[in-house]
Amino acid sequence: MYSVESNFLRLRLMLGKDYVGAVPSWSPGKEQVQVTSYNLIMDVDFQQLKFSGTVSIHLQCEKDAVLNSAGLEIQSIVLNEKPVRFKQDGQELIAQTGPFEGTLEVKYAGVIPDSLAGIYRAPYDHTHIVTTHFEAAQARRMLPCIDRPDAKAEFKIAVKIDRELTAISNMPIESVIPDGERKLITFQKTPRMSTYLLYLGIDKFEERTEKLGKTDVILATTPGKAKLGNFSQDEAKKAITFFESYYAIPYELPKIHLIAVPEFAMGAMENWGAITFRESALLIDANTATRTKKRVAEIVDHELAHQWFGNLVTMKWWDDIWLNESFATFMAFKVLNSLHRDWMIWEDFVRNETAGAMRRDCLKKTHPIQVPVNSPDEIEQIFDEISYGKGASILRMIEAYVGEDAFQAGVREFLTNHTYSNATGNEFWHSLEKGSHKEVNRIMSAWVQQPGFPTLTVKATDKKLILHQERFLTSGGAEKGTWPIPLTLEINGHPQSLLMDASEQTIETSTPVNSLKVNLDRTGFYLTQYIGCEDMVWNSKLSAIDRWGIVFDAFAFLLSGKMTFPDYMKLLERFTTEGEYLPSHEISDQLSLLYTIARPRISEFSRNFHRSQLDMLHEKSDENGRVLREAVANRLTLVDGAYSDELAGRFGDYSRVTPDLKQAVALAYARSTENYDSLLATYRKSDSDEDRVRLLTAMTAFANPALVSRTLDFTLTKEVKRQDTRIILVTAAGNPDARDITWKWLQQNIEELQGLYKGTGILSGTFLSTIPLLGIGKVEEMRAFFEHHEIHDSAVGIDAGLEKLFVYDRLAGTLA
């Protein structure tokens, strides 16, 4: 999640994960067990939310067999038809087998909780589905197993359920045997795969199947919603075709399910052959905004990229999870660029992935891309902008360095050499280096093992450029740091590239420097500060991405104290008539954050800028224009009372408002009327997830803090999906009128929030987003509170949030 965002409106799905408690650390060669296959038979009581199971595991052990098991009642363990003594030690199930090779049979029972992790109940319309989410180490909640990514095995799954229900797993159904009011469904055997990729779903699913060659592409939803999946199903077919060509490896399974889950902590999960999504991340209806449609396509493509890179070839241990997620992030944008050329998707990449990662990585409380991982609670807290956005940006940088063809050749070799197996990041670098004949390993090792990123200062004389790099910190000050930077620049219209791996470098030119720009297309993961040569930059032919980079870097320098506020505002004056999507959206994002931090100093400029933008956007009908118009209208309602009053009049016919304007209309109505009851009534009548979140968002925008507090209380009722509560807390934190009461509410309800998200990693990111806003003017109070309330599975987000609070509070004090 980004700190420069639409504080009331940015609803980007957070890919939160699931905390399960500590498990032993692992390193290659430590374990003395090999697993070949699982044969699982489960009997699921859908109404009573309980199950029993028998799993037969073929193992080879050099000592007592040790399985992972959590929350299960182990009834018996048998080896070669003889009972085996066993004991439970935390989440380890130790069977006193001694060394053996054979089949271990475990009988057990469990319950299906109201959680968001493991096997759980996802409610909807007075009923529920039973579904699973196993990443990172949650499969142990459904069956005793060796719950590590390197312990790949084949799985044969059968499940007994009520006759009127259906079931979905990773593979197609092999047989259905009726048994009175019940039936036994047996699925085909999976290929070798990791436990975290298993899936089981049970409900009265509505399914729609389309063929793609030999592959069934199946959409599965709760009853009545399959018609909303046309866009995603079509996107999936095109994406699979792209990946099969790019990887030169066909999709390996007979089918792929796209499953809409009504309650889901994540945006989506790449279970092999059975991908799960939030409904709002898969289904498109008449209320869907253009922004959401683009995000749905990105999520579908991201999860499909994993079917090869992550599923077919899997990291050996969780310290390489970043490679899994960053590669899928990067490849999703390659697909989007191929399928939706008019979206200019690489502009979204730098704005969302690269910039989002930099906003996280500019803190001292950051972490390298690759970090040692000893337990799942550590895993969950590194599913963040570093693992996704920074990793993807580094891959984009290295692709630009070695060339697209060499990069693709390296990817193909890596996948071919490690099919159905596990691999490390170093093995991927080796494949890229072999394909490109460039020193990829040294460059990538430095970038993934070193926290932070550089700022590059550029000075120019008549025929000389002097470049200097050091680590950029938003808290200010200087810190030495050197990275091997694949540097791109353009001097007098002529592009150049070189590898800068020293702290300082001089470039001689044959003619005087008249025009200059550094970091072409923003492929490099660094900031650029021009000193005394700014006119040379403006003399260059600047693309939309170039102009975005200038204003993005300037805001970073403002936050760090390297640029004064008057100089920053002087720069923004150059952009008052900006007509391109990317730089305009960035300026709008920055003004939105400044509105939250120091409203009196920015309101007039923000009102004029957004009014001007709205006037220009009336002439644009392309999809990016509609996305920008939505953001501009949203922000304008907060700074322009006349516009808000005008727009509020359309709320009476809210159902007919165009989707891209619905959020602005709801916001305007809240600001102009303070009519909580009307917004609540509209919420209760809505059957659209996206509309409901829009309305809740508007209900955090009231100028009256007491009404915002009522909204926050409402999010803890059963009328609001658990997945949405943290979104609404973040939007409330962005309302300067309700800052104090939202902070008070958070303190009073922090234990309930912990219970609500128990088993997920969501709160860490939530605290990172809310602390810097809620704590302005009360830094020590907030620090003391979190020192007293230790929340171990959110420690990373809390520490980073407190550091970012220092930055925001300092800026607020400067602008007061």
Can you tell me about this structure?
With 816 residues, the protein is α+β, with helices and mostly antiparallel strands. Helices cover 42% and strands 22% of the residues. The protein is globular.
Approximate helicity band: 40-55%
Strand order in the sheet with the most strands: 5-4-8-2-1-11-14-13
Indicate the proportion of strand residues.
15-25%
Cα(first) to Cα(last) distance is: 27 Å
Major beta sheet summary: 8 strands, mixed
Shape: globular
**Number of alpha- plus pi-helical segments:** 25
Radius of gyration: 27 Å
Mean residue pLDDT: 91
Number of strands: 29
The chain-level structural class is alpha+beta
Unreliable spans: 1-30
Question: What's this entry about, in short?
Answer:
The chain has 816 residues and is α+β, with helices and mostly antiparallel strands. Helices cover 42% and strands 22% of the residues.
Keywords:
single chain, 816 residues, alpha+beta, 8-stranded mixed beta sheet, 5-stranded mixed beta sheet, 25 helices, globular, disordered N terminus
Present the secondary structure layout.
Blueprint: E1 33-45, E2 50-61, E3 65-68, E4 73-79, E5 82-83, E6 86-89, E7 92-95, E8 100-111, E9 118-124, E10 127-133, E11 154-162, E12 166-169, E13 173-179, E14 182-187, E15 200-203, E16 206-212, E17 215-221, H1 230-247, E18 255-261, E19 268-269, E20 274-278, H2 290-306, E21 313-315, H3 321-339, H4 345-361, H5 376-380, H6 386-402, H7 404-417, E22 421-423, H8 425-436, H9 440-449, E23 454-460, E24 464-471, E25 485-491, E26 494-500, E27 504-508, E28 516-518, E29 527-530, H10 534-538, H11 544-560, H12 565-573, H13 581-597, H14 599-617, H15 623-639, H16 641-648, H17 659-673, H18 676-685, H19 689-698, H20 705-714, H21 722-733, H22 739-756, H23 762-774, H24 779-788, H25 795-815
Helix pairs in contact: 1-2, 1-3, 2-3, 3-6, 4-6, 4-11, 6-7, 6-9, 7-8, 8-9, 11-12, 11-13, 13-14, 13-15, 14-15, 15-16, 15-17, 16-17, 17-19, 18-19, 20-22, 21-22, 21-23, 23-25, 24-25
